[in-house]
Model the fold of this input.
Amino acid sequence: MRPELERLHLIEQQLLQGPAALPSSSWRLRQLLDGELAADTLAQQRLYHGLRLAGRQQLRHELRLIHARLYEGRFAWLRRLWPG
Amino acid sequence: MTPSHPAASVLPSDALRQALLADREQALTRLYRRAFPAVRRHICRHGGTAPDAQDVFHDALVVFYEQAVGEKLVLTSSASTYLVGIARNLWHHEQRRRARLPHEALPDDLNELAEDSAAAEPAFAVLDYVARLGEKCRSILLAFYYFQQPLTQIAEAHGYRSVRSATVQKFKCLERLRESVRAVFSSETVDY
Done:
């Protein structure tokens, strides 16, 4: 992968506690040596928060569709009784 | 470790997680059909309306989904009983909130109330940019980071020949999102 993508991967491992996450002492050392790492980590963490909100929106949308299919429309009662 | 039959060793919460990951729509529909009537009955008997029941049930399903795929769900009863329990609890909180603030409407997302508001603000800004991503990137990022689908499944669903290709694409999409929201973040300072 390109170095920029490798950096995203490195930060992701740390934030999501992936198998390649560094021990906290090594991570602190990296932050001391790399002046932009802390800011990049914060920015990436915010992306994940935003993606969580977007995921919840998507899930709610899917739930509204399921509700409509089961409880609205002429044959909804049939779909509730005989799924599939 | 003692050897056991694979089917017998699968815990209900693990089976549920697998079902949600394999076919979310089908698994959620099954849960919906089993649990929603009891939730609606409870809420309508305790001062709520049918739309309240729907909103609260959706909030409960979001909580339930995140616990299940995040492997934080320990089922001691059936999944639908557990789900009804979450919904009853959320409705109880909502009733107390309404008693305190009688003129405010039900919030769109009860979960968002639990977020730290200072931390949530930039996340809401990111939300707009996620919506502007192309369909493919949006789908890959949500599948991985929210729905927690394995990369093998994401690769197959999006037509990638290998997990490696899907992984690279995921990071390219994340990079695209980061670049588009960079202006939002760069206006803030970082505390070391």
Observations:
- Chain B touches chain A through 46 residues (CB under 8 Å).
